[in-house]
Amino acid sequence: MKLYLDLIFLINIWFDFLLLLTVSILLKRNIKFKRIILGSLIGGMTIFILFFKLNNLELFLFKIIVSVLMIITTFSFRDLKYTLSNLGYFYLSSIILGGGMYLLSDTFSYTSNGMFLYNNGSLNYLVLFILSPIIIIFYIKQSKLLKDNFLNYHKVDIVYQKKVYHLNGYLDTGNNLYDPYKKRGIILVNLKIDYDIENVIYTPYESLNHQGIVKCLKPDNIFIDKKEFNNYLIGLSDDKFQIDGINCILHNKMKGVLK
């Protein structure tokens, strides 16, 4: 099996470019491409470590030093927190890309050596250059989606008739339900609650293609992320919410209060 150092050098630069670009996008660093390319070139220099005999500890320390140099070269050094954040996302992206390559090697019967994939003794450059950015693009999209949604998830504790109900809440800007009597916001819950019929407040609602009546209760207390909220009703929903793991839809007017 022949290995061409110039091709491996280019592959190293390509991987490092993808990883640094991922960090820039996820953390919104707004870094110029030439700085990313410069950082990638520093990372590509690790190919020359093949000419030195290092033990595992020395190799580990060398990789740490090179990665720190790459991060500082690409994103500059503003403070320790800023640099560690960049470095952390760089390592996380490396794990995702490396894991994706391992999955490909296992699925398509390639032999893996680090991030390099072999089939019948030949290095598969097509897999490396084409599929690696697909893995990174998927990771970026899923990370941004998770980051945007994560801010809308909240821990909700509702106290009703001295009984505490623990729920997983989601802040939905589409929930603008108010009771017509005192203009209290309505928090929708999909939960079995024991209540007396005389305590029910019937509230009409109208959506795009549907209208009806929702049964509401006045809770003793509502705690969202351990912060107390008053002057809200809880609306009992018989339908499960479409958001995975959620059994409580918070009211839109809480948007400016919850963080």
Briefly characterize the structure.
With 259 residues, this protein is an alpha+beta fold. It contains five helices and twelve strands. Helix 1 crosses helix 4 (80-107), helix 3 packs across helix 4 and helix 4 (80-107) crosses helix 5 (125-150).
How many separate helices?
Answer: 5
Strand order in the largest sheet: 7-8-11-6-12-5-4-9-10
**Amino-to-carboxy terminus distance:** 56 Å
SSE arrangement, N to C: HHHHEEEHEEEEEEEEE
Low-confidence stretches: 114-118
Binned strand content: 15-25%
The helix content is: 40-55%
Helix-strand makeup class: alpha+beta
Total domains: 2
Number of strands: 12
Largest β-sheet summary: 9 strands, mixed
- The rounded Rg comes to 27 Å
Q: What sort of overall outline do the alpha carbons produce when their principal axes are compared?
A: elongated
Average pLDDT confidence is: 81
Structure explained in plain terms:
The chain is α+β, with helices and mostly antiparallel strands and 259 residues long. It has 2 domains: 5-150; 153-254, Cathepsin D, subunit A, domain 1, CATH 2.40.70. 42% of the residues lie in helices and 23% in strands. The protein is built from 5 helices and 12 strands. The strands form 2 sheets. It has a 9-stranded mixed beta sheet, with no helix packed on it. It has a 3-stranded antiparallel beta sheet with strand order 1-2-3. A hairpin with a 2-residue loop joins strand 2 and strand 3 (122-123).
